[in-house]
Amino acid sequence: MITSTEPDSSWVAARADRDTHFEIEQFYYEEADLLDAGRYTDWLDLLADDLDYWMPTRTNRLRRQQALSVAARGEAAFYDETKESLAWRIRRFDTGMAWAEDPPSRTRHLVTNVVVRHLDPEENTDFTADDLLVRSAFLVYRNRLEREENVFAGGRTDVLRRTPDGLRVARRTILLDQNILQAKNISTFF
Q: Three-state secondary structure along the chain?
């Protein structure tokens, strides 16, 4: 399992071909569209049942201490979720008890700098030759009520799995560029 923001380079094989790269970009655009439209249940369908969805916190460190700037597994994280826990959060939105999203936020997810590589299953038996390691950059704009605006920028490292039903996100590590969030809450999905 990928547990850090920088996967072991021995897991990575060649870059994906142009058609695969285009397919992955279209997958991400569809995902962004679902999130921006508030279609969270449909978004859940793009996630693998064994999903690992992790957003560690980060701190400012001196250059020589950069390896310590991102929290490790088991340390503080904004998100450390499974598909089941994300589904619970989404069901809660409809109960009227999720005050942080009532009225709901308006978001715009922009995904760019997509790099797609094949994973080497001989180096990591959790994956198959069809699994893809995808790195991307994102910018998420969120507006809520009259004056609440938030901008989240960062990068994602995903493992995408091919299934009979299409691509599924099996692992997602999200790393925000900011270490202190100005948002009153973080109920946005990335």
A: CCCCCCCCHHHEEEECCHHHHHHHHHHHHHHHHHHHCCCHHHHHCCEEEEEEEEEECECCCCHHHHHHCECCCCCCEEEEECHHHHHHHHHHHCCCCCHHHCCCCEEEEEEEEEEEEEECCCCCCCCCCCCEEEEEEEEEEEEECCCEEEEEEEEEEEEEEEECCEEEEEEEEEEECCCCCCCCCCCCCC
Residue spans per domain, the chain? 9-176
Just give the CATH number of 9-176: 3.10.450.50
pTM for this structure?
A: 0.87
What is the C-alpha separation between 182 and 146, in angstroms, rounded? 16
**Digit-coded pLDDT (tens) for 131-190:** 999 999 999 999 988 888 999 999 999 999 999 999 999 999 999 998 888 887 888 999
